[in-house]
Amino acid sequence: MVRQCPVATFFGKEPFLRKSRDMRGFSLIASTLCFCASPALAQEIAVLYNARPPYAVESGGGVTGLIGDPVTAAFKKAGVPFKWEASPINRQLSQIKDSAAPVCGAGWYRNAEREAYAQFTESVYQGKPHLILTRKDSAAAGHRTIDALLADAKIIVLTKGGLSYGPFIDEKLAKAASEKNVTTQENIGMASMIAAGRADLMFMAGEEGEELLKAPELAGKGLILSPLDGMPPAGKRHLMCSRSVPAAVIEALNRAITTP
């Protein structure tokens, strides 16, 4: 798929050539033409996503949502061809780490472990502070701070394997006295585990928790969202890309993301 460059089309017209006698102006336009024709920017990028409202919502063959919309806008604005590709969370990690093809995952937190094998764009989204999804009758609902919560050795915290909850929560979890239960379930399955008493809580950004509790499968299960005092905004989410994505593509996306 070759990207069309409107500047190149206009440049070839006779009226433009008559108006472009100034060599500095000519040099600037020529540089722009070279940029538009860059093979790196013409290469299609697979953008991996995991359907997860309200962040990534499948719609009309594309992906919308709090992360889907700004990612789509960034690629279109940068002029980089792309295609959405559904992929589970853990598979995305291996695809980005091992794939020789240019791929990016949408909406990932940035941390040192991932920086060892991936490259990141500027942030595409930052969410509300995390809270906990728990049962009304759980001891977890009685704790008002994350430190008190994770100091409770009787509580079981449910986490998703391969998923980061942002540096603030990740660091707290690493030092927690609470038991940690790691699962490969998606949000609905994790919430059902908590409702069944197999764990006491899971961390979620506010907007994600509100969307999750709308699911018919969770109606009448006694689940609640409980805020914690002193929680910072959720971590910034980025496009996390394989090393095979050209630097020119990352730069073009960053310009598109940061330029109003």
UniProtKB/TrEMBL annotation:
Keywords: Signal
Domain Solute-binding protein family 3/N-terminal: 50-195
Transmembrane intervals: none
InterPro entries: Solute-binding_3/MltF_N
Signal sequence residues: 1-42
SUPFAM superfamilies: Periplasmic binding protein-like II (SSF53850)
Pfam families xref list: SBP_bac_3
Record's protein name: Solute-binding protein family 3/N-terminal domain-containing protein
Source species: Azospirillum cavernae
